[in-house]
Amino acid sequence: MARISVEGLSKSFGAYRVFEDLDLAIPKGSYVCLLGPSGCGKSTLMRMIAGLDTEHGGHIRFDGKPVEHLTAAQRDVGMAFQNYALYPHLTVEGNLRFPMKAPLQKGRWSAAQMTERVGEVADLLQIRPLLGRAINQLSGGQQQRVSLGRALVRHPKVLLLDEPVTHLDARLRYAMRSELKRIHKVMGTTTVHVTHDQGEALAMADLLVIMRGGRIEQAAPAMEVYSDPATAFVAGFLGAVPRTVLTLPLSERDGTAGLRLGGQHVPLPPALVAAARQAGGGTVTIALPASAFAVDPDGPVEGTVAAHEMIEGAQRLVLQADGQRVNIQRSETAPVANGDRLRFRVDASEGLLFDAATGDRLRPPLRRAA
Amino acid sequence: MASMDTSTARLAPKAARAPGSLGTGDILRYALASIFVGFCLFPLYMVLSTSLKAEADIFAFPPAWSFRPIWDNFNDALFVFGGTGVMPFLLNSVIVTAASTAAAVGLGAMVAYGLTRFRIRGGSHLFFFILSTRFAPPVAFVVPLYLMVRQTGLMDTHLALILIYTSMNLSLVVWIIRGFFEAIPVEIEEAAEIDGYSRLQIFFKVALPLVKPGLITTAILSAIMSWNEFLIATVMTQNKAATLPVYLGGFSGSMGLEWGPYMAVGAIAVLPIMIFTLVLQKHLVRGLTFGAVR
Predict the structure, then answer these.
(1) ipTM above 0.95, yes or no
(2) Domain span at B189
(3) A4-229: CATH homologous superfamily?
């Protein structure tokens, strides 16, 4: 078990900068998910923590001690790979013993202890009947368990999981999620889990780290990331029907401040107006939940249907208005076609405001104090 | 298990015909294949049958298909000729072949691994350069090699042939094994790195076992080449280190041509390498890395 701190990490591949001055603190024993679209740098960050990629600037510390100069072998981490990467020339048991037989572990494990430990891990992962099997006789789910077992077997300080359940079918993936949580509870090892599946990340993470373009957008408990996003990207990223993120000019009508959408005035609640004014006004970015919009023939704003689909009995529409995309969900399922024009209402009271330039959250000053 | 499954799957479509019966296409295919196999094996048959014939049977025309086999030729070949017979040459061949094959496969595997796993400036040029050593016919190198061997005092030694054969086989080994190393997913080796193994340990404990089919393939090819090489052996050795092909070549000149013992030596020359190949072939397990990584 170790506390991991990443300080001022920078990395580039040739002229392409992956990270610049990245900071992240991972508490001892926590289960952390790194979530983000592909290419956001989450896997690269994990490889650096593992010691597989050591050419970088900045520091990585385990329990305060710098590890940048240590090889992967010396860092004492366990890692489960996305494609499992089991040793095909060894049996399941051979794979589980391999980390304990490493020269660096010399003298730490007696033959009897190794056998006992293999048994423990096999029981934990329910793979005892498979111990004698060859790797190519295993199903995907079984291989996944073995790769997890190999990562766990010598009690590493840190457990790294790179998209560990991505290749499994939906049912097995769901089962493995709770399995991973159970194992984490038993072992208590600090775990870093890389995934691009937000459902998986929200369900599993103690600490959810959202990454984009080599930056950490937000690192917080999962529920907080969901309900209180720190940036416009995070606000529009999470959820089956993600929030609608619009960048709109501030406007004023009849003494009330609001935003202009489709030539119409959308009033803002006073707290948000204060936040927007504090940031200088002009243009702001607002994130609105799907419930903020309702299709209404008498509604003030008109949009064009750009996409439509059914999600669990509800109809999800993407409307184009003012060159921006609005996500709407409605329970009645009137037939629509792309290109249809629909009118809708907007209720901005549940909105979250962000700086239009930086994407950072604009918080109402008074509400924070109260 | 797995192999059984695939073989039944392959046979399945044929079950549509009555079992045991062949179509016209099959008959034609088998006939052509038989002719080709016969063509290839006939010289070997002649060597083996002649080595077992008495002098009268050897020169009988038309050739005697049935004859009383005798072992006199082998006796002559093994114990009589040159006072020592074939044994010292057989031993030389075994020493040179074993050493040069082991060296070529061992070094070649290391070179191939290094060039596939590390980014080396000009690595692909290096690969091409290694292959280019095979572009010229070996006879072009004979004179320079002769001078080098003479200057270093290695004339008529095992070491001279071992060094030359190793360098001749190396390019083949590097090129074939490179393909095998490239097929190993890099994550398997990264996993071993994380598990606590150094690069050299990973090479021996993970990478080499996974390219075993490649090692065996190249060992067979290298051994056959070294075993049968005549030109360089005949120039670099006279007696002490002469190999079987040199001994066979000297046969015709020295004592007229005694076909019986000549063919007996030929049979002795063929058998060891044949057995070596057949034994190793069994270990050519294909698809060892299948299913390791999805």
Answers:
(1) no
(2) 84-289
(3) P-loop containing nucleotide triphosphate hydrolases (3.40.50.300)
